[in-house]
Amino acid sequence: NLINEHGFKLKINTVVHQFNYEESFLDFISMSKTERWKVFQVLPIKGENDKYIEQFKITDHEFNQFLSNHQTLIDSGILVPESNSQMVDSYVMIDPVGRFYTNKKGYQEYSKSILEVGVYEAYKEMDYNIPKFLARNGMYDWD
User: Fold this and answer.
1) Which of 17, 46, 72, 143 is the most interior residue, by most CB within 10 Å?
2) How many angstroms separate the Cα of 5 from the Cα of each of 2, 9, 99, 143?
């Protein structure tokens, strides 16, 4: 309520996994007046979540089941789903020490720090897939 009272727009990210893929978020998303809800299929990343990922992984069918249960939010343009294939190599990310990183090979790869080589040079090291970023609706207008 405070977010809305102050005129801010709300975006929520949710990772769908084995423990929540059968749940309904319809009431919560409606009540919170969420403008954009990014829904991700849990993504295995070597070296990051290997230890516990097996208990969280879901099938494409289970992910699609979750999406079907929230179809009204997809139709309204609030819910933006991202499967594992859509997420890999489509995010431009920067870690806390100023390195760009990517997950295109199934693990995190890092550039040199932007503090060392500048933003342009560090960004070039990653060779991001810009068409894939655009295809997953990565650019959006809050107006």
Assistant:
1) 17
2) 5, 10, 36, 17
Q: Find, among 73, 88, 3, 5, the residue nearest to 38 by Cα.
A: 73
pLDDT digits (tens, 9 = 90+) for 2-48: 888 998 989 999 999 999 999 999 999 999 999 999 999 999 999 88
Count of CA atoms in the C-beta half-sphere (13 A) of 103? 19
How many CA atoms does the CB half-sphere of 31 hold within 13 Å?
5
CB 141 within 8 A of CB 93: no
Structure tokens at 30: 């409606």
Count CA atoms within 13 Å of residue 75 on its CB side.
6
Instruction: Return the DSSP state at 110.
Output: E
